[in-house]
């Protein structure tokens, strides 16, 4: 028994070390990153989730991108040659496309060599979003915005087939390297959405060759060429030898210089030879692998947080191993949403409003942050997360201060006593943490006598329920698509009600008017003032109990350079540098 | 004999037909709408209607059923709703991992339990036999989930003998990850297997031919190995054949916990995503294997014992 | 007249038989100390479940405390969970759900299994073909997928757990009953009842059923084991009882994350509670089978 265990351990460790040594040599100078979830596919029009988008952002190119170091994040040209010319009325954007940008080599090109990127490629790629054959979830970025595009799509869906030879009025290739986009109304977020995965450019010949399996053979113009994908396990990308001329940024925030983030300023990108993404769903193995140096950086999983971070600083054990900690407040928000159509918890003003305010006041954010986030979150006072224009750090939401007495008063105002308080139904997605959240909501609301029934659902069932307005109360989170508070405020716009993204079905005439006014305004103090008024309305009506903005705690190993996290910037791999010499030395100590 | 086999094969058709019917009713009439999941967080009314049409959800039910029937016959189940990958690809990607876990684990547990059952039958009626039975029953009284949680915690997390989860698709590398799940499989199935095989052997021990053999003066060991085991092998093998179809689904819980990219883990994911095409494919193929191995076991039985076919 | 009396006598002796079987079985079980102990444990659990549902014991099971995860102490015998709730009381309340699953699913599955099995075995022919086709089909579909599918139909919660398990686990019993009815229908006592003009229903349920009742009883005790174990798996898959209700499955599901943080008491309490009751049912059912199934005697 004892002997066999020794032999077993020996065999097991032999197998592991033999594998890693071989790999280390072959993949020197590769960035190694862990993914929390399994990747479904790598086609920009099909795979819209965050993790697929992250991998795709290294493979595909877009017209615009975010500046890597500057904060707040700024849009800069990517495969467009300079910023577009914008007409005075804000309705026409003329992009020059960089010359000499090459697709990755692939068998789908006539001689196997990647050809040059052209304006028509963007038009083709955008049209795919509207092609019923692709069932894309990305069309919203252009819907009702680009001139005639929605009509083009409706026609295609009526015919059951998209005719790519038919032009879209708002998309025009003036010449090989000029793309003109015409809008139906001003769209201040256009330059943001053009950085997103649905706006990535793909070569027509490859899509036609691989068909639906393009998601398994992605070909783009990005810094990395797709190499291999072991399903549910590992994706390997290697440097694209024909990658366009691009250089590490020379400007950043004041502290970037001191943090060594500008050491590579002006160097040709990418700064590494490839990227390996490893898909590990479970926290424990992901964490242990990071500690062994298998990944360059990692978000600390919840259950291991207390072992690594004490009073907001990294413990000595990790510091001595050359690990450093970086903290950012994420641009997201968790919330408990009420269905405003519901006779009990819904309705503008009146009874429903006081009930919602009462429940919000009974919500104990501090304890929630302690119990469910290891303190890694800040209490949300309104719908806009920090770091976005329009966020007011001094705002205090009167219904977000835990106070049972006040909550009971509000309940009385709503016309209930503790004994006659209504029973509410909360819907949540499946999972241990959600179930525990559900039990916690029950306890919190019970402090003012409101009984809650909690139901768990599979994700599609859960969505089905609130998209069809059948949920009374449900809990969710929203992450920013782009750095504009509009992305959060649109969640309360009446015309976006279910099945659109406004699932609380909040429909407030004054709010709607303000939203429509702000929607066509460019960023600036005037727009922020309107945003502020909108937030006032939302706080008063409380269609949501605002939860928290989560803080990201990331660890990086000593050999890993140029790491600066922001949840919106996805095409980051090209900036990273692996100090292979330091890695060989440090990894031995782990 | 041939007519019996032919009749038995023909009988498979109505069963499989019934399976498609039940599967269709359960999964097409209920459950969440995949459209919302596919459209993500920005879906609009128009997009929803469009996609429902694309997925054939707006067609009348009998048409949807005929379509499913066609899929079952051609064994081409289309694409997953959640990942858009071909289901046949997903199946062929997952089956290797599942079988790598279940075939060795199953083989070892069957051999081990036959051996132990033989011992129990040999010592029947003694304190050893009685103790073994209670021990088996005790082992069966703990949930599989607890075995998994505890073993994973103890051997992977605390002692670090095995990796916690993960998988290496290379043929040589995968075993590192499979040993612990295999051990759990064996521990979990040993109890009930031993009791079953013990009962089968005891059935044989009291047959007349065994008494005759003993009367001839053969030693108890020879009787056990030459006569009892030999004859007990028929029901034992039938039982094993009937368990084979379950190897294909692997073990849902083991795969989910140990991150093994097999069919069991895939099924759990499909359930969480209401990914009906995948669930329907798994259900149908699972049932098909069950029906097939049932047939094999019946036919084998009929060949061994020709009286059966009269039934 | 004489013929009739003769048959009457025969019927009474035939129906007497199971009575002696029962008497014999009871005396056998009485002699089996282990089985008796297990029976006592089962009764003890049933009592706990009853008292808990009447709110006479462990009534404070939902009482929270800001200080979560305190280890076992004189105040909290089995420690507390993440919300500071007493694990011992939750375990006791879990008994209620565990036993109710066995009981309610039996009320669903046993009537289905017995009726279909009886009809198929008794009538034979086309009816038999149809029922055999039906249960073979149901049986061909992997168990877990059936249970999960039904849970979807019913929505979540304890009710759907009952229905899902109840409607999927009757096939085994149905098979046994069918086989027994096929054997019994041509026995003399049934033929005699026929001669006396007893209806089909009467012959099936008044004459034959008492003779196969021991099969039902054994099945009944085994069902508790299936019920308790399935609840754990369903809870893991998120298909268990409503959040807020204490069940062993939910406690074990919680524990899988807690163990890494050194919180072992919740897992230990639920597993221990489950172990003793399931083991008792296992041993008791085994003893019952030995006592009631003459074929297995002397083994």
Give a short summary of the structure.
The complex is a heterotrimer of chains A (590), B (311) and C (299). By secondary structure, chain A is an alpha+beta fold.
Descriptive tags:
heterotrimer, A: 590 residues, alpha+beta, Dipeptide-binding Protein, domain 1, Dipeptide-binding Protein, domain 3, four-stranded mixed beta sheet, 19 helices, disordered N terminus, B: 311 residues, mainly alpha, 0% strand, flat
What would your notes on this structure say?
The complex is a heterotrimer of chains A (590), B (311) and C (299). By secondary structure, chain A is an alpha+beta fold. Chain A contains 19 helices and 23 strands. In chain A, 48% of the residues are buried. The N terminus of chain A is likely disordered. With 311 residues, chain B is mostly helical. Chain B is 76% helix and 0% strand. Chain B starts with a helix and ends in a 7-residue tail after the last helix. The mean pLDDT of chain B is 84. Chain C has 299 residues and is mainly alpha-helical. Chain C has one domain: MetI-like fold. Chain C has twelve helices and no strands. In chain C, helix 2 crosses helix 12. The longest helix of chain C has 37 residues. Chains in contact: A-B, A-C, B-C. Chains A and B meet through helix 1, helix 8 and helix 15 of A and helix 2, helix 3, helix 8 and helix 13 of B.
Instruction: Assess the beta-strand content of chain B as a share of residues.
Output: under 5%
Span from first to last CA of chain B? 12 Å
CATH topology of the largest domain in chain B: MetI-like fold
Helix-residue proportion of chain B: over 70%
Number of domains of chain B: 2
Low-confidence stretches of chain B: none
Q: What characteristic shape of chain C results from the CA principal axes?
A: elongated
Give the overall shape of chain B, derived from the CA principal axes. Answer: flat
* Average residue-wise pLDDT of chain B: 84
- Report the mean per-residue pLDDT of chain C as an integer: 85
CATH architecture descriptor of chain C: Orthogonal Bundle
